[in-house]
Amino acid sequence: xxxxxxxxxxxxxxxxxxxxxxxxxxxxxxxxxxxxxxxxxxxxxxxxxxxxxxxxxxxxxxxxxxxxxxxxxxxxxxxxxxxxxxxxxxxxxxxxxxxxxxxxxxxxxxxxxxxxxxxxxxxxxxxxxxxxxxxxxxxxxxxxxxxxxxxxxxxxxxxxxxxxxxxxxxxxxxxxxxxxxxxxxxxxxxxxxxxxxxxxxxxxxxxxxxxxxxxxxxxxxxxxxxxxxxxxxxxxxxxxxxxxxxxxxxxxxxxxxxxxxxxxxxxxxxxxxxxxxxxxxxxxxxxxxxxxxxxxxxxxxxxxxxxxxxxxxxxxxxxxxxxxxxxxxxxxxxxxxxxxxxxxxxxxxxxxxxxxxxxxxxxxxxxxxxxxxxxxxxxxxxxxxxxxxxxxxxxxxxxxxxxxxxxxxxxxxxxxxxxxxxxxxxxxxxxxxxxxxxxxxxxxxxxxxxxxxxxxxxxxxxxxxxxxxxxxxxxxxxxxxxxxxxxxxxxxxxxxxxxxxxxxxxxxxxxxxxxxxxxxxxxxxxxxxxxxxxxxxxxxxxxxxxxxxxxxxxxxxxxxxxxxxxxxxxxxxxxxxxxxxxxxxxxxxxxxxxxxxxxxxxxxxxxxxxxxxxxxxxxxxxxxxxxxxxxxxxxxxxxxxxxxxxxxxxxxxxxxxxxxxxxxxxxxxxxxxxxxxxxxxxxxxxxxxxx
Length: 691
Ligand code: ADP
What we know:
The protein is an alpha+beta fold. It contains 20 helices and 13 strands. The strands form three sheets. It has a six-stranded antiparallel beta sheet with strand order 2-1-6-5-4-3. A hairpin with a 2-residue loop joins β4 and β5. The protein is elongated, with a radius of gyration of 46 Å. It starts with a helix and ends in a 10-residue tail after the last helix. 31% of the residues are buried. Bound molecules: adenosine-5'-diphosphate. Adenosine-5'-diphosphate binds at residues 575, 579-580, 583, 609, 611-614, 622, 627-630, 637-643, 666.
């Protein structure tokens, strides 16, 4: 704020304060030194609120002090009493500023702003009352100390009149400042501001303008009539009706102005001995009742109006949020639907309709799976009660499920991942939230990549076989040339070629096994687990003996039959047992234990060893493709074996974990379904469901 502007404001407010003080002093109650109204209290807080950032605030303090001194002394107060009023007024204003800062801190954050709701009104009322109490403690008490006169009724009038004054003039000042700032921001000069006001008036719909006029006329008529009345009936309460009318229908600034106007009429008439309060004989009581009336009318009006404003703002905020949510909901590429317990679609976004090929059911009721063409990936239709929403409504936990959608709108088929969650409403009724994600492109890409890897791996085997074959022939030729100076070097080079080709072959074998583990159809049949374990262990014993290594020791427990694909199961056990033998310290004879238990239709198989163990924190990572935990320890490998094991187990609907063997080494535990008896097989889902 510039000095010029600050000075201009000081001058303006000082003039208003002077007028308010003189007016107040003209209303001194007969037989006392107490004014019936004290508009200067309200003008004072507005003045210091407006000037709270002024560079010359001391000038405002000085102006207020001078005016208070001069007016009070000119109207008969002693210099001491006048000085006391200066202190009282300054304390009152200071308390108001401190309290409003505390209770309504956002008042100043974005320029002068109107009340956002009743909360702000209570803050203003509280600050007004608190400031008045502070003033009343100093004012009447000091007068008593100075003059020896003290009147409790006068103190009560002081409280009521100053609170009314700060509340009414303070809120009017707030709205005036807000409107002024708004119009100045829009129109710049005072002249164009006035033009803006007129334009706003002209833009107000006629019916609205008529209501404003009607209310103004009715209010004037009611108050002028009511306060011209000199009978003894307490008719003042009926006048609150016009305030309620204004507060429930018209703009809040108008309500504040209305409160101010009717308050002025009420006080003015009472002051001149007219109206329902004039019948109260005691002047102090009369003044108190009139002020109380004004405060109540103002609070009722502003509470109703700000409550309505708050509600309107909240509704607008909610509507904006709803629009935003709707826009997000409608624009998302994933399908989303909410289905209630009666199978009725409560909510559905356009993507949900599109992903199902636009096959929506009239009446918004979910139809059977045949209507939408919902199939399992093996082509079997999904039974109605196994649709994801039906499972969620039945309280089932539905994990992401791949489904095929094929109907006349999507003849080529679309693969979706559908998941559903159960929502329980406040009335306890369930509904299902279904999320649909189109994975057709992803799955196609993955399959193409997998078959490409398979083909490449297969084709690579031929050249590797050729390299191995020719390396062997070359080695034999070199062996036939003893004594040749380059023979030793050539032998060494050929050995390296041969080892590299072996590594290459095992990598390609791993890649092929990987593709097989993912792609081959699982043909689950009852398998003798014990026989497979024995085949694998015998092969391992033979290999160890053939390589001149110490024979591993196997302890095999009772192994129940399982329901699995024998080829994949063999591969799984071969990988686990092979690793257990491989990852053993050089000077230790491998000792393995293979045991199994049956629980809830699942066989839990445990392969434990006395090997080097798995480094801490890598027990899950080792199941990832190409992850090797002992990379630098000199053990050959590709890091694919356990990834293949995991895939095989998962395709049988089981799980696999690795942990430390309590006696040292590692322990791998996997589950597969127990073998089905003929009795089990009757109602069981066909084996093709295992994927
Ligand atoms: P690799 O071809 O390296 O053996 P795997 O996928 O079979 O690949 O195993 C991944 C890693 O897990 C291995 O590199 C090894 O560090 C660790 N591992 C597997 N089995 C065992 C075991 N029985 N004992 C200790 N570590 C093991």
